[in-house]
C-alpha cells in the first residue's frame, strides 16, 4: 500500500526524536567572517525551523546555517539535540556560531525530554541562548504514528501533568515552555475531548503555552482565529507553512492558507515570534524552498 506524505512525515518524526544530528566542519568556514557583515545588514524576516533543512544540517550544520542567514532569516528553532550537543556542537559553541552569523537562537524542539533528563536538557537549552523550550509531540513515549495518522497513548491528564512539571522547571530556569501541535490535538478524542482545549484549560499560562502550527490546525479543519478568541494570549509562537490544493506542505505564499487573515489577529493570539517550517519539500531543494517562503513572508506582511 502506498503511504501518504503525511504518514511518511509521521514516521520521520518518530525516528527523528532523540537522534543525533552530527556536526562537521564547513569547507567554506574560512570565508564566513568576510560575509558576516553583509548577512547582518540585510533585511531579516522571521525565523526558520531547522527541521526544514534537517538533512543538510546533519551533513554540514555550519555551512547550512550560513545559508539560512543568507536566505534572510533573523532567528532559528533547533531540532537536533543529542548527547548534550546541538547538531554536534556544545551549547555555548552553537550559540557563538549563530551569533557570528547574526542569527538568534530563539527556540528548540526537545522531543527526547523526560522527567529524568529534563534538568540537563533545560540547562543545555539555557546555555545555548534559547528563550523557548518546545515539546514537539506528547513526550515520554506517549506519541503514536501510523497509517491512520498521528495520535497519543496514555491520558490527557498524564500529558497535562508532564507539561506542567516541565513548564515549572523551565520557568525556574528563565525559559518558556511551549507545546507544538499537529492535527490530532484538534480532533475529538474517544471521550469527545479536544486535546488542545484540555491542555489550555488545565495548564497555567505562566508555565505552559502553545506553538501553533498553522498548517496542522488547518489540516484538522479548525479555525486559528476561533482559538485566538477562545484562549487569547496563549499562542506565543506560530509555525508558518502553506498547504497546496492536494493538502500537502508548500512554501509560504504558494498555497491556499489565508495567512493575512490570521496575521491580522496576531495580537489577540499572543504571538511573539514566527517560524517558517516545511516538513517535506518534495522535489524542491529545502534550501530553495526556504528562499521562496522568505519572499512569501514579505509579500503577506509578516515582519
Q: Tally the helices.
A: 13
- Biggest pleated-sheet summary: 8 strands, parallel, barrel
Order of helices and strands: HHEHHEEEHEHEEEHEHEHHEEEHHEH
Distance between the termini: 43 Å
Rounded mean pLDDT is: 91
Percent of residues in helical segments? 40-55%
> What is the overall silhouette?
globular
* Spatial sequence of strands, sheet with the most strands: 1-2-5-6-9-10-11-14
Number of strands: 14
Q: Which structural class best describes the helix and strand composition? A: alpha/beta
List the uncertain runs.
18-26
Integer-rounded radius of gyration: 18 Å
Task: Estimate the strand proportion.
Answer: 15-25%
Q: Which terms summarize this structure?
A:
alpha/beta; eight-stranded parallel β-barrel; two-stranded antiparallel ribbon; 41% helix; globular
Short note summarizing the structure:
The chain has 303 residues and is of the alpha/beta class. 41% of the residues lie in helices and 18% in strands.
Task: Describe the protein.
- The chain is an alpha/beta fold.
- The protein has helices at residues 5-16, 29-41, 54-59, 61-70, 91-100, 118-127, 156-173, 195-201, 214-219, 224-230, 259-263, 266-269, 286-300, and strands at 47-49, 75-78, 81-82, 85-86, 104-109, 132-135, 143-146, 149-152, 176-180, 208-213, 235-240, 242-243, 249-250, 273-276.
- It has 13 helices and 14 strands.
- It starts with a helix and ends with a helix.
- Residues 18-26 have low confidence and may be disordered.
